Amino acid sequence: MVNPILGLVRHGLQRWLRSQCESVDHLHLELEGMPEGLLQGRLEAACLQARGIVWGALRFHQAIITCRHLHLNLDRLRPGQPIPLVGPLVVRLELWCSAADLQHMVLGEGEGEIPMGVALLAHFRGLAPGDCRGWRLEMTGAGLRLLPPAHQTQIPPLLLQLRAVDHGITVHGEEAPDRPATIPLDPAIRIHDLKITPHPQHLRLRGEAWVTP
After folding, report:
1. In which element (H, E) is residue 197 found?
2. What pTM did the predictor assign?
3. Are 104 and 61 in contact (CB under 8 A)?
4. Contact 190, 93 (CB under 8 A)
């Protein structure tokens, strides 16, 4: 039987987490804690599982986020506000992105363009921003393939491979393997493992983040 105080805290946190996302298809939160610490926001462990997440410019097919020894100021828990931590926290991350998710984050939608895709196409192909519209992204076992618009038949696809580095992701182009580009991440985020899973095909990232109040 779920402790009623734990259930109350979980319900409040789930509502708060949903308020942080533009949309989320599924969200489930599991908490562990002792009754005497729950009303003060002290939790032994927390595990969040979510699918279909849209958070600003980011999209994820699935996410599993876990942490231990979590201390929150429940009086300051407000929709749309940062999580009210009392002390720093190490969060373990496992994220999955579909090709559609990456299309949105790297190249934008339709005729739109976003800085990451423009920077990659400029770095590997020397394209001007106006020539980066309409590119599409496919995921393969060998990496990511960027496809030019249908009317640009003279331009071949661009095959990219991703590798995790300390606080970023290096992107290696098939045509310039010794001249990679780097996608920087927040210094508090470290990616330990990055690969494409076969069935179903997703880009999976595993790492951790150092979160401070």
Report:
1. strand 189-197
2. 0.89
3. no
4. no
